Amino acid sequence: MFGIGGGELVALALVAVVLVGPDKLPQFSADSAKFIRKMRDLAQGATRDLRENLGPGYEDLKVADLNPKTFISKHINEVLAEPKAEMEELKKSAKIDPDLL
């Protein structure tokens, strides 16, 4: 979970108890959960709006695809897929005459 081990999680819990106080910790936890839920809904809504506004061909868009390197390589691979398939077909159909060797 987020690259946090058991000992680190216990240490964070102790720091939270000290900083917030044991009496306010349940309310703080509930408020934090609401904030995280609201941020997740906001991010999912933004992704959904982006998919809708980009139009056809982007229905399978993922947030990781928005990384410029990933985005460009994905589209280059799509463009090159057809010529690669044709080359593979040609390789399969091309045969060397044993008499020529």
Can you lay out the helices and strands and say which pair or pack?
Blueprint: H1 6-20, H2 25-54, H3 68-93
Biggest β-sheet: count, sense, barrel?
Answer: none
* Secondary structure tally: strands: 0
Number of domain units: 2
**Approximately how much helix is present in the residues?**
over 70%
Q: From N to C, what is the helix and strand string?
A: HHH
Total helices: the number is 3
Shape: elongated
| Uncertain residue segments | none
Q: Which class do the helix and strand fractions yield?
A: mainly alpha
* Proportion of residues in β-strands: under 5%
The average pLDDT score comes to 81
Distance between the termini: 61 Å
Radius of gyration based on Cα positions: 27 Å
Q: How would you summarize what this structure contains?
A:
The chain is mainly alpha-helical and 101 residues long.
